[in-house]
Inverse folding.
């Protein structure tokens, strides 16, 4: 076992992690730990763009961007956070430009901008060109640019190191914090894939930037590595997860595969058609049609299929039509995604429409933070020295539905903020002592898994999880479907206790790591379905067929899921009540779910409103 000491440790080398590293490494000793080689992070798969109200090609301003974000998130957005993001967007794009990012340009040489879903002029009048882009490889360019700048700045990377535990001085999953005491994050435990060796990193400040959790679903645009590690590690230490029921289903995944075709295809003029050739979005969103936000488009597509107007032999998808666009335009603006259609479906997008269907894409929820990036342990108190940014976090700028191009923006704005805040904190803080046995839990878990004789296969349990999530917690949800998913997850948690790995070795044992990642997926899926079961309304990405309307009176609040000990039931109930704010007991989120050795308690947190009153959401 090796131990290391750094002022700031960043877990994750995607856009959020590396943007944070650029801020903190110039000021204090910083290490970045990543289970992937940095440039393999999912940020590199992002296609369409990163928005900012630069007004380079059309009139625009950050206030319209804030409004669109709040409305797009169906008013569950914390408006102070959305304001920060929209204002700082402009600087965030310019930062990247100065670092050398090759954005597409207008003929005059300015950064070009294109349309994207839900981004409008003057509070919904018409679609506006707000997304800055580099063809359909924007994320690739961001990731490469950030990495090159990290290298230039001598950032220290620990690549192919898996963080498997967060060290805190009070483990909230085991009980409550004595009154007046603070909770402090003191380090992380990591596993070196190459050698199987355990490393302890002691740090004054830790930033989680571990990305999303799309692999809880079968049909997803997400990479295999998006297994919700950071969320699960925080949750297992008793920290809350916020708004986990809100998962985004992107309208245009390649049918049957889930591989993403960017919304930029519609931003550049692509049209969705049903099996009868009809441009059906005209019926669902008469003003901005195919460029309505993703939740609305995904639901409309699923509805067309359900009502028998799907395309193809089984009428189980719709079509993305680019055939009216000039081939030269397609080649210049959408080269990668059209190549995906050719490679994976054998479709020629110049002349044939592309079969598409919604695919699980983005976690709106995550580890709750304030606008500085500090992690919250309840409605108001922070964990000293712990920060989160990017898809793993919930600030909440996306509310119940994220607008396209707002995530590449989020990772840059809040990655930068978290990096700055962590460095500032580390400058004033002292290292805190680590417990003697800091790595014992992780070592025991690894050894047990490795030594277990024949048992369940990881892939069987994972597939069963993904199948139930696709069937029961996707675009349409009901009480019955969610109860089914909950029961299935419980049964799978039990089976997980019995999984064994074939590879018993220590070097490059990816088998072993996949088993641990499955554990994270199960924990995350559980918070998604419990939150969805409890939220008896429809809002943004969460649609309950049995409660099809938004219910602001009862549900205009964030969900907070906590893991608590089973025997602490009184405390757990008190916690649920204490986190209600001014909500009456009748409305309280007190759904408590007992698993074998812990329970999940759902509390709530008020939504921050500044200037926008909730309205009905029409486009
Ligand atoms: C196909 C696709 C296209 C997209 N297109 C767009 C777009 O055009 N515009 C937009 O705004 N958004 C887009 N998104 C969303 C956006 O790309 C992501 O939300 C964002 O890039 C996430 O960045 P991140 O830094 O939070 O995480 P990631 O880039 O996913 O990085 C996560 C990092 O965490 C590390 N990590 C994870 N677990 C561990 C662990 N246990 N130990 C150590 N390290 C760990 C990984 O190694 C990785 O470096 C797209 C997403 C997908 C999937």
């Amino acid at each position: 076992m090796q131990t290391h000491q750094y002022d700031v440790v960043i877990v994750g080398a995607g856009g959020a992690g590396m943007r944070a590293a650029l801020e903190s490494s110039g000021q204090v000793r910083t290490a970045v730990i990543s289970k992937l080689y940095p440039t393999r992070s999912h940020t590199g798969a992002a296609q369409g763009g990163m928005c900012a109200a630069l007004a380079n090609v059309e009139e625009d301003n950050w206030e319209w961007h804030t409004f669109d974000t709040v409305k797009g998130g169906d008013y569950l957005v914390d408006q102070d956070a959305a304001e920060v993001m929209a204002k700082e967007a402009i600087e965030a794009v310019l930062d990247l430009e100065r670092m050398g990012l090759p954005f597409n340009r207008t003929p005059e040489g300015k950064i070009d901008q294109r349309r994207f879903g839900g981004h409008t002029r003057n509070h919904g009048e018409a679609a506006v060109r707000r997304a800055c882009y580099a063809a359909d490889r924007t994320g690739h360019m961001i990731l490469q640019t950030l990495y090159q700048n990290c290298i230039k700045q001598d950032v220290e990377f620990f690549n192919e190191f898996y963080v498997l535990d967060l060290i805190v001085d009070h483990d909230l999953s085991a009980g409550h914090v004595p009154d007046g005491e603070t909770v402090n994050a003191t380090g992380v435990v990591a596993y070196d894939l190459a050698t199987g060796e355990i490393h302890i990193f002691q740090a004054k400040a830790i930033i989680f930037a571990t990305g999303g959790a799309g692999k809880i679903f079968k049909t997803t645009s997400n990479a295999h590595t998006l297994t919700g590690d950071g969320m699960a590690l925080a949750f297992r230490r008793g920290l809350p997860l916020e708004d986990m029921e809100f998962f985004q289903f992107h309208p245009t995944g390649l049918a049957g595969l889930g591989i993403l075709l960017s919304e930029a295809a519609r931003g550049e003029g692509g049209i969705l058609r049903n099996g009868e050739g009809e441009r059906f979005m005209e019926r669902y969103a008469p003003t901005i049609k195919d460029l309505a936000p993703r939740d609305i488009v995904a639901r409309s597509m699923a509805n067309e299929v359900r009502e028998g107007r799907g395309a193809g032999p089984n009428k189980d998808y719709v079509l993305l039509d680019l055939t009216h666009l000039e081939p030269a335009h397609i080649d210049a603006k959408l080269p990668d995604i059209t190549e995906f259609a050719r490679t994976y479906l054998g479709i020629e997008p110049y002349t044939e429409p592309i079969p598409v269907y919604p695919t699980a894409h983005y976690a709106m929820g995550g580890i709750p933070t304030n606008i500085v990036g500090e992690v919250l342990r309840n409605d108001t108190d922070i964990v000293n020295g712990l920060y989160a940014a990017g898809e793993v976090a919930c600030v909440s700028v996306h509310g119940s539905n994220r607008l396209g191009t707002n995530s590449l923006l989020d990772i840059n704005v809040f990655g930068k903020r978290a990096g700055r805040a962590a460095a500032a904190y580390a400058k004033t803080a002292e290292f805190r002592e680590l417990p003697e046995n800091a790595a014992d839990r992780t070592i025991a878990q690894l050894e047990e898994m490795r030594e277990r004789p024949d048992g369940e296969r990881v892939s069987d349990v994972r597939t069963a999880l993904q199948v139930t999530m696709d069937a029961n917690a996707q675009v349409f949800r009901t009480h019955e479907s969610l109860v089914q998913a909950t029961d299935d997850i419980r049964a799978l948690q039990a089976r997980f206790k019995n999984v064994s790995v074939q590879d018993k070795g220590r070097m490059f044992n990816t088998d072993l790591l996949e088993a641990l990642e499955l554990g994270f997926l199960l924990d995350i899926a559980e918070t998604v379905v419990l939150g969805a079961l409890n939220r008896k309304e429809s809002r943004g990405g969460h649609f309950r067929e049995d409660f099809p309307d938004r219910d602001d009176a009862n549900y205009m609040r964030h969900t907070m899921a906590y893991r608590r000990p089973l025997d602490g039931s009184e405390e757990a109930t008190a916690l649920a009540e204490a986190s209600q704010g001014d909500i009456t007991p009748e409305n309280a989120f007190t759904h408590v779910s007992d698993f074998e050795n812990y329970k999940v308690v759902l509390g709530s947190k008020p939504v921050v409103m500044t200037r926008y009153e909730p309205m009905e959401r029409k486009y």
Remarks:
- The chain has 17 helices and 21 strands.
- The CA atoms of residues 472 and 480 lie 9 Å apart.
- The first strand starts at residue 2 and ends at 11.
